[in-house]
Amino acid sequence: MAPQLDGYFKQVDTLSDHFIERLRQAVAIPSVSSEPARRPDVVRMGHYLRDQLTKLGATAELRELGKQPGTDLNLPPIVLARYGSDKNKRTILVYGHYDVQPAEKSDGWDTEPFELTVKEDGRLCGRGSTDDKGPVLGWLNAIEAHQAAGIDFPVNLLMCFEGMEEYGSEGLEDLVNEEGKKYFADADAVCISDNYWLGTERPCLTYGLRGCNYYSIEISGPGADLHSGVFGGLAHEPMTDLVRVMGSLVEPDGTINIPGIKEQVAPVTADEEGLYDGIAFTMETLHESLGSKTTIFEDKKKTLMARWRMPSLSLHGIEGAFSAPGAKTVIPAKVIGKFSIRTVPNMEIEKTNDLVYKFVEEAFKKLNSKNTMKVYAQHCGNWWVASPKHWNFEAAAKATERVWGVKPDFTREGGSIPITLTFQEATGKNVLLLPMGSSTDGAHSINEKLDKKNYIEGIKLLGAYLHYVAEEPMN
Ligand SMILES: C[C@H](N)C(=O)N[C@@H](Cc1c[nH]cn1)C(=O)O
Ligand SMILES: [Zn+2]
Ligand SMILES: [Zn+2]
What we know:
- The chain is built from 14 helices and 18 strands.
- 46% of the residues are buried.
- The protein starts with a helix and ends with a helix.
- The radius of gyration is 23 Å and the shape is globular.
- By secondary structure, it is of the alpha+beta class.
- The chain folds into two domains: 6-209 and 383-471, Zn peptidases (Aminopeptidase), CATH 3.40.630.10; 211-265 and 310-381, 2-Layer Sandwich (Alpha-Beta Plaits).
- Helix 4 crosses helix 14.
- One zinc ion (ZN) binds next to helix 4.
């Protein structure tokens, strides 16, 4: 089956240095969507992708989305592209994001985050290498390798790459809904490569994601930062209030203290009970990717359930707080605490927000503080769970076996890709998540990397998937 794949694979190997060079160029653009000062770089990254796609013969355009709500900043453009329009071929719509999480060398990186460093053991280190520049470039590389090998591209490819995913996919939902029956009208299925294997050995196909509601709690009081020797003990301190409120949200064992959250969670079904044992996942691999043995649960099933189908609440940081080394004796005048809740079936965004606001307001009230408190959601994205019983997944499973020599696990993912459900609903088509990187890649963390093997074999996988898609009977 898929007889041309050997020629394609050979060409991917031949072009591997060129593909690493393309990743180097992309990593060098610090497209951090959450930092206003980096917004021109995010825009530059969108232009870079458009130009690369045009050079490869795709029809590519930039769709402007206007201003980011509540700011004077332009949202980065959506890159829309089409490669091929043969009525006799299937059409696959792929999505990815070209923005990245923040990164500073001083966070503890061993290398410069925006300089791709190729380590002797094959690690390609740099911000965005695995999340999500490597996988996005994977689609471009697959096109190029087909051209170089002189092999007909097996499908029509529609591409949608955004620059705000790490900030809740601001602006994209309307565009996807608008284009569902226009630009994306002839899509037969959707494929997203933007998550990771559960471990380091067994590839997976993913059919579920958690959602993410991201909140801020703003507490202010004094007119300016104060000397703690002069004002300590006689003024209500915003930081003291905030630490108490944030500390009341969640227990050290992960239990969420907000009433009404766990009541929304779908019960475990008998079918689901048997699902976890067969998954290639060990606590040892988890410890390796965690970089420690500080797991809450000792067993695999509870741990997988915690990641895939239970909500979690994480505290992320405090804007305005003193965080530099040293011992500054300041009382910060205004602090903004950030936390998020990963949501699961059947949690509802608005209902969850109302429960959070009520809890935080009551927790603050109990402090009898004269400071002022505001709580609000910065962005919310829904969870998504789909059926993997579809030719889209069949094709990906065959491609995985061909490239990696093993059957993939069928997994859910603890992270969020806010637009996934929108793609499913706007196109009415099956959505597949086909990850390239592994559990030890350190997405969102310091020293993010993509192993060269995962990048190069991942390019083969994306191309092979398209060949098997072309061969699958419709169901
Ligand atoms: C899984 C994906 N690669 C990812 O990292 N998604 C982000 C998206 C996000 C950011 N805020 C809310 N959602 C994530 O899961 O944190
Ligand atoms: Zn991410
Ligand atoms: Zn991502």
